Amino acid sequence: MKIIQNGKIDLQILKNCIAKPKIYEKSTAKFWDDEYISQQMLKYHLDPDIEAASKTREAIEAETSFIVKWTDMDDKKAVVDLGCGPGLYVKEFAKTGAKITGIDYSDRSINYANEFVKAVYENTNFLLMNYLNLNYSQTFDIATLIFYDFCVLNPTEQKHLLAKIHTALKDNGLFIFDVLSDQRKTLVTTKMSICEGGFWNSEPYIEIYNTFWYENVKTEGMQYTIIAEDGATRIIRLYHRMFGLAEIINLLSENHFKIEKVYKNLKGEPLSDDSETFGIFARKV
Questions:
Q1: What backbone phi and psi angles, to 5 degrees, belong to 229?
Q2: Looking at residue 19, what is its pLDDT?
Q3: How far apart are CA 81 and CA 269, in angstroms?
Q4: Predicted model pTM
Q5: What single DSSP character describes residue 132?
Q6: Is 32 a residue whose pLDDT tops 90?
Q7: Structurally, what CATH architecture does the domain formed by 38-181+244-284 represent?
Q8: Using an 8 Å Cβ cutoff, are 81 and 93 in contact?
């Protein structure tokens, strides 16, 4: 798609590009598996001080420590980490001796994990695939999905994934994940930046960033409109579903999981009425 037509910017096309999309409307270009963008994502994954593609090193260490202790993770356990990225959580889990499988959609992240994690921890295995295509039965004691990945999925995908995880877990297996709560505040904004090169492209581009709010389903929409010098335009859309505690309890119950414990986060901090996130430990029933 190009916003330059007959040597002029087509303002109607531009207006349509930055308009509020229908909820869960797809991007017009690759994101997770884009060759250039995945390289930038990996840099953010590996920066220990930035919460962007991954959480900070401090948060990862605190969360993995709590999860390991809570689950009694040891060399008798089998664990799958969904959306594992370059294996930052897998690496920490692997120190327990458990057999850890990491699954991610990014070829670049999986290659990194194989080179720098699997090479050190032989009890790890990494698979390049969309975790919505998970195809295991009665295999794992524990499944993890961390950094609000569950919130990115649309309702159909959420139910589909819960069914896949339920099948993949052994009897009484644990599903551990975090979500954004409906106490989180979203501001509807529009920002424009002119970049000489950056996250989206090595060449100069304009970035128009919009945030939208969908009240009926409590969902935040983030839209990045990327315009190259020749007018070529890409739109990247991401969504975050925000849950009330009763909603997530009911959703899990409907899909044959029982919540064992809910914390403020996966560090195990106590839940409060104004918690903007939930760290959830649920058991297959």
A1: -60, -30
A2: 97
A3: 22
A4: 0.96
A5: G
A6: no
A7: 3-Layer(aba) Sandwich (3.40)
A8: yes
Which of these, 37, 17, 54, lies nearest to 235 by C-alpha position? 17
Tokens of residue 156, six digits: 């159909």
- Model pLDDT for residues 186-245, shown as the tens digit of each residue: 999 999 999 999 999 999 999 999 999 999 999 999 999 999 999 999 999 999 999 999
User: Residue holding tokens 């560090």?
Assistant: 267
For 142, the enclosing helix (H) or strand (E) is strand 140-145
CB atoms within 10 A of CB 277: 21
What pLDDT score does 45 carry? 97
Tokens 């910017």 locate to 9
Residue extents of the structural domains in the chain: 4-30+183-241, 38-181+244-284
Distance, CA of 84 to CA of 109 (rounded, Å)? 8
Q: Are 248 and 175 in contact (CB under 8 A)?
A: no
Sorting pLDDT into bands at 50, 70 and 90, what band is 61? very high
- The letter for the amino acid at 186 is T
Query: How is residue 209 annotated by DSSP?
Result: E
What residue type is 283 in one-letter code? R
Full DSSP string of 62-91: HHHHHHHHHHT--TT-EEEEET-TTTHHHH
